[in-house]
Amino acid sequence: DAKTTQPPSMDCAEGRAANLPCNHSTISGNEYVYWYRQIHSQGPQYIIHGLKNNETNEMASLIITEDRKSSTLILPHATLRDTAVYYCIAPKPQGGKLIFGQGTELSVKP
Amino acid sequence: EAQVTQNPRYLITVTGKKLTVTCSQNMNHEYMSWYRQDPGLGLRQIYYSMNVEVTDKGDVPEGYKVSRKEKRNFPLILESPSPNQTSLYFCASRRGRASGLFGELFFGEGSRLTVL
User: Fold this and answer.
1) Would the CB atoms of A98 and B45 count as touching at under 8 Å?
2) Which of A32, A99, A100 lies at the smallest CB-CB distance from B102?
3) How does pLDDT run across A69-81, given as a tens digit for each residue?
4) Does B100 have pLDDT greater than 60?
């Protein structure tokens, strides 16, 4: 897996966009970037993934830099329910080992 | 409904008393894995299985065993639990590898284990 680095915590005002960065400078050409979130102590939930193009789904947008060394998860209109720990990972496609790291704890405040 | 089911969800036990945490998925996924989560340490992988009868160590396998005799089940076995195995445990699965894609992981709801 490519090593990923995320800030330990971030705050965001309710209704504003939350931009969560992830550094993955050692990522290989065939390694996708995946984002998950974990609300309280529930099982992590898949959000989105991408290789080199920007991606958007009903939950979030993913912006990957052209050199693929970093990415940003965007929650366009954060709500209190988006308060969670967000994990960015870049697993080897053919591998089984996964390194999650500690993620970013996002607090959405009213 | 597609799901990963873990049992028990909560368990308090004593040092040395063997226990098994079961994990079952109904999505016909090839890959399954176990994680533990401790405060300040994030999710750490214990073991994973690429398919039936194929298992391998993750980052923190000491003190744990697994088996994969059937595709749907991947039990985590603590032969002689110790207090340092008190943790929140998660099982996850994903379908087989599409070309170039690791694939989306589906997680269970977690099993909180306390070893006294």
Assistant:
1) yes
2) A32
3) 999 999 999 999 9
4) no
